[in-house]
């Protein structure tokens, strides 16, 4: 293993809905790894959403009693940033996860840097230009022989995504984005709970490395919509 190789922060969030500006993170995981799939560290936490609405329990399996006593996002944000700092942000459908993470951080007064992310959904689609295959995380894992136990558990999804990275980079070579520095992200005022009406304007533009296109916070997403699967 090359210790000088960039660290990857493979992120997955489970949320109370599909819109980052309206809904909240209820579970968060970060798997720190290398591009060859070597896992360096795992971390996950439940998150108590403001208003206590947990959203689609049938998707993520979390009910209100599961989140009783869970920390707020403000309490887990410093640990999250410690793991994101100096690493490449990676996720399956990275626009979704990046939008939720950065919106929650913005609510708490953190400064969100401009960044590029590595999106394994886009990498998978790049190897299927005719769109003949499904690129939902469970289907991509099945094709590459990557185990996925407990889809929509944030840690399980993040671990599976980390294991997919070397396979997808091998099938659709793409340069790794630059690691993201969060050194200047410290909050300048307490803002947790504030509405985010102009969240998109506050984000740094994000490019998904597989296609070098803006990966801005997405339009409303329906994960189980058969005609336009989100990839999650």
Task: Summarize the structure in words.
The structure is a single chain. By secondary structure, this protein is an alpha/beta fold. It has one domain: 2-Layer Sandwich (Nucleotidyltransferase, domain 5), CATH 3.30.420. The chain contains 7 helices and 7 strands, in the order βββααβαβααααββ. It has helices at 57-60, 73-84, 94-107, 120-126, 137-144, 154-171, 199-202; strands spanning 7-15, 25-33, 39-46, 87-91, 115-119, 206-208, 213-214. Strands 3-2-1-4-5-6-7 form a 7-stranded mixed β-sheet. A hairpin with a 5-residue loop joins β2 and β3 (39-46). α5 packs across α6. The radius of gyration is 16 Å and the shape is globular. The protein starts with 6 loop residues before the first strand and ends in an 18-residue tail after the last strand. The relative contact order is 0.21. Mean pLDDT is 81; it is low at 194-229.
Strand content: 15-25%
Strand order of the largest sheet: 3-2-1-4-5-6-7
What is the helix content? 25-40%
Low-confidence spans: pLDDT under 50, at least 5 residues? 194-229
- Number-wise, the strands total 7
Structural class: alpha/beta
CATH class, please? Alpha Beta
What's the topology here?
Layout: E1 7-15, E2 25-33, E3 39-46, H1 57-60, H2 73-84, E4 87-91, H3 94-107, E5 115-119, H4 120-126, H5 137-144, H6 154-171, H7 199-202, E6 206-208, E7 213-214
Parallel strand pairs: 1-4, 4-5, 5-6
Antiparallel strand pairs: 1-2, 2-3, 6-7
Helix pairs in contact: 5-6
